[in-house]
Amino acid sequence: MSRTALRICPLCEATCGLTLTIEGTKVTGARGDREDVFSKGFICPKGASFGAVDGDPDRLRTPLVRRDGELREATWEEAFDAVAAGIRPVVERYGANSVGVVLGNPNVHTMAGALYPAVLIAGLGTRSLFTASTVDQMPKHVSSGLLFGDANAIPVPDLDHTGHLLLIGANPLESNGSLCTAADFPGKLKALKARGGTLTVIDPRRTRTAKLADRHIAIRPGTDALLLAAMTRTLFEEHLVDLGELTPHVEGLDELAGAIADFTPEAVSAACDVDAPVIRALARELAAAPTAAVYGRIGSCTVPHGTLASWLVDVLNILTGNLDRPGGALFPQAATDRTPRPAGPGRGFRLARWHSRVSGHPEAKGELPLSALAEEIDTATAQGEPVRALVAVAANPVLSAPDGDRLDKALGSLDFMVSVDPYLNETSRHADVVLPPPPPSQSPHHDFAFNTLAVRNQVRYSRPAVPLEPGRMAETEILARLTLAATGMHGADPSAVDDLVIGQTLGKAVTEAHSPVHGRDPEELAAQLTGESGPERRLDMMLRLGPYGDGFGARPDGLGLARLLAHPHGIDLGPLRSRLPQPLKTRSGRIELFPRPIADDLPRLREAARQRTDGLVLVGRRHLRSNNSWMHNVPALTGGTNRCTLHIHPEDAERLGVRDGAPVRVKGAGGEVTAPAEVTDGVRRGVVSLPHGWGHDRPGTRLSHAATDPGVNVNQLLDGSLLDPLSGNAVLNGVPVDVAPVAAR
Ligand SMILES: Nc1nc2c(c(=O)[nH]1)N[C@H]1C(S)=C(S)[C@@H](COP(=O)(O)OP(=O)(O)OC[C@H]3O[C@@H](n4cnc5c(=O)[nH]c(N)nc54)[C@H](O)[C@@H]3O)O[C@H]1N2
Ligand SMILES: Nc1nc2c(c(=O)[nH]1)N[C@H]1C(S)=C(S)[C@@H](COP(=O)(O)OP(=O)(O)OC[C@H]3O[C@@H](n4cnc5c(=O)[nH]c(N)nc54)[C@H](O)[C@@H]3O)O[C@H]1N2
Ligand code: SF4
Ligand SMILES: [Mo]
């Protein structure tokens, strides 16, 4: 007998609602849930393969603990005993910073990842925090922090209503969108065109997204900040600046105009390899559109001027009056956002409150660059102890971060490492303890992160579609127990972690004048929380305190967990709306258009306008049926065009003697790899492209299908020294490489 259950898909940022078919405890099918308030039935090949991803026989079923050098199956009790015994002595002997924490991307796709790591980090008191954000979107956090005073206030293009979309370094037809949660991104781009809107794509590759565009500009990688600066300059020069409703909320306009005066289209044209009249036309089209949104993603972030490019994206939205207006770029309002406080000056955003020990990299948002993890482990300095113990949650930095070989060695030298990961892979193979979370079908789901980035306000929650298999532990409980074991409370009841957070949150809320629970008794409020588990009670609390919440009775028709559970396809909370000035938390209470750290970084950009590399540079790419490093083990999602090949333009191939299908050697500052060439004019001249997340040929892993076509680790070409200095984000695109055919024997 089969049954169906609803489950939000955790396999990318689009958060589609799925209807799963379940036989016994096995997911045998998945289709789009047509009644889902957000995704309305959309599904992609990954979502359709949910059952295969979920039921991968290589997923670990029990904890592993290293004994006599070998990882062996163990009980949960033995595993947490080993965690406490591994971490506590390191903290006690060498101090909190000697315990590192690495958080990978899937943390934003699980409830556990949203609710527990902050408690773990605070409990440990460590500053050695490294996450996937610094190989991804940290520049956007920094630019938002500087402009708006809140690193998490990220404006999202109003895809359903905009008249003109300028898309920079993003390929949503493969990625399904990022920092812009939208189910059926492809359909939304087609709808934009159908209603007479225009789409411009800036990408060194002619991607599937670029093929949809009215205009595709194949820019030279790494030079977007120059192009955007010249567009900004053009808006000033041609008197196209029109802040509209934003006028009272913006400061620094004149300073900005003066500072970018020398970034003329002519001055940047050669570096970008884009003609000056084209740059002017881009600026004019943006200003002339009835509504427009500029949106930049990976290709604009993982480059040497990532923060400047991210800042300029919003500067252009602001100068054309498109920020915070329907059809432009708006700030979503999620149901679990904090209770909105009254508008007014805030505490502002600060950078560089501390620095990394070895290279002195400044922190950003409390994080150190993932690129610096290897040196923080393998290099002793007088500044303090190296990282000697590591907690890795949903992270595979051996493949995702620069110089995997160095990190691989460094991980091998740790006193202790624990990985919370479903797979024994390139990173977790170094752990002394591996704690495997259950598959997604056995986990609850709510998108704490992506609802704050969604193109429509809505809220959805799925309880586990399948009960926990005997011997399994929910990932929320794993992280709660790990937190207790690592912070000297080993063995305490895991609900203590949830009670602590609930007590602290309610305790603070009752003191805030703007809170709906101001002046009430936190214990009385806590007693009202519903839910079957600690994480559900926390979700209930956040919903009830949130902007749409029932305020614990203050607004009886407001949201809470019970109401959400009564709406299994979700609750629509309406289109994105203008919110300024409320989201601003700058010290001035206004948008600070030309902040100091940005001003100080401009000379470096000016310098870049004069540079031109003539050699080849490398960029990445994504495939619809892949996901970073962890989906190459699912046969249904591999093969065909989803392969680790080097894309190279026919003219470059000809010049270098590279033949289609033949192996080529690619050499970068961090090492070299050999991959088959794929000669294609889908990349521009002077650019080659290799996808990331491959290189599944290391011993001691348990990824049987991935190992049959392992590919190579593109990040081995990097040595970790190239960073965007303001954000600490790794430079992964526009990296110089040498390419040569592998000589036939
Ligand atoms: N060259 C290059 N490098 C890149 C990029 C690029 O474009 N080019 N992209 C970068 C980006 S954007 C990112 S986000 C990073 C990603 O980097 P990482 O976060 O390190 O890598 P992932 O492959 O996303 O997944 C990390 C781990 O999560 C595990 N996992 C999967 N599901 C779960 C779960 O439910 N719970 C737990 N605990 N673990 C789970 C997987 O087995 C895997 O080991 O890579 C970056 N690296
Ligand atoms: N199918 C699939 N979906 C995914 C993922 C996946 O691995 N596979 N990963 C998920 C994650 S973690 C993330 S962060 C998102 C990323 O989402 P996107 O940002 O949409 O990711 P990409 O498809 O890598 O698109 C980046 C584009 O930038 C281009 N580019 C490279 N360098 C430059 C440059 O200097 N300038 C410009 N203008 N463009 C440049 C590349 O050619 C590429 O087409 O995708 C998410 N979704
Ligand atoms: S688009 Fe993303 S969320 Fe939607 S089904 Fe595909 S992988 Fe899942
Ligand atoms: Mo990412």
From TrEMBL:
- Per UniProt, residues of the 4Fe-4S Mo/W bis-MGD-type domain are 2-58
Record's keyword annotation contains Iron: yes
- Highest taxon of the lineage: Bacteria
Query: What keywords appear on the UniProt entry?
Result: 4Fe-4S, Iron, Iron-sulfur, Metal-binding, Oxidoreductase
Q: What is this protein called?
A: Dehydrogenase
Protein source organism: Streptomyces asoensis
